[in-house]
Hints:
Elements: H1 5-10, H2 31-37, H3 42-47, H4 49-62, E1 68-69, H5 76-80, E2 85-88, E3 91-94, H6 115-127, E4 134-139, H7 141-147, H8 159-167, H9 169-193, E5 197-202, H10 210-229, E6 234-239, E7 256-259, H11 265-271, E8 277-282, H12 291-299, H13 302-307, E9 311-315, H14 325-337
Parallel strand pairs: 1-4, 4-5, 5-6, 6-7, 7-8, 8-9
Antiparallel strand pairs: 2-3
Helix pairs in contact: 4-6, 6-9, 7-9, 8-9, 9-10, 12-14
Amino acid sequence: MMSSIFMDTLNGVNTSRPPVWFMRQAGRILPSYQKLRSSYSFIDLMNDKELASKVTLMPIDDLGVDAAIIFSDILFIPESLGMDLEFTEKGPKFHNPLNPSGDKLNFSFSPEKLEHVYQNIKEVKKNSPDNIPLIGFCGGPLTTFLFMFRGNETDKSFKSAIKFFYSNKKESLKIIELITEVSIEYINNQIDSGIDCFQLFETYCGIIPSETYAKLFLPFSKRILNAAKEKNIKTIFFPKNFADGLRYINKDICDFASIDWAMSLDFAREIIDKEVGLQGNMDPRIFYSDYSEIEQYLNGLIDFGSKNQNWIFNLGHGFIPDIDHKKVKFVVDWIKQANWKR
């Protein structure tokens, strides 16, 4: 078993401090990434194993984080199902999105379209330090479903998907079942390629009522996460804006729950199964503050961190592109040097 502060925390081993990594850490906030991006397209960086490996490992050298996350995207699963994916400067979109009329629901799975992700994982493991774990991931079933209806990269309401879901629940659940089956195969292949931990990103969990998500979607998320657990891979579940639905999260679903900034870590600890560790939940907009205010925020975490060994420091969501990477490095160094009174 790999020995690192990140894996030790996942495995319930007491540590002197919380481990730290960030969602979207491999990307636009890093000058080294911006320099590389000036020569290659976003998709080129993800499709070339040497480039993807380099980007994945940049935060290790530039920020000093305790774990790497594979440089990839949650929308490769819909692409593998025959959807025409494009990454624009404004965001991803599909040229052949699903639509509420339901006239385009035939899918053909092409597993070879996911092969580059597995090759990238192998390349990262070949190049990374022995004590740096690699996190694999995929999108949650609801989040993936929502994006499959998106033909406009600026549409964040997902109106077409929500309309289809409420008016065609039977067909919707067929699509969710397919997403789940492909996700499980995807995870198993990521594990076989070398990932050390798996995170499920249910970024748009909060777009529907928490009770609806818990009843209709959480069982699918559980199946995806359990596929990793069955291979002895530790799991992290990120159901953003799940709010009071977090009370449904227990050890049978995931090992750790990643919390957004809408609730305090203390409150999340009260309502989530105590056997489930926590990850999160710094609001990335705090990085716009000056250093003294950032340090004041961090000092406010000492009490929680001293009492909770099963906690990973992270954000409540991903980085905003114009955040100053020097402030991020300051946070990483502060966490490593602080007295966590453990």
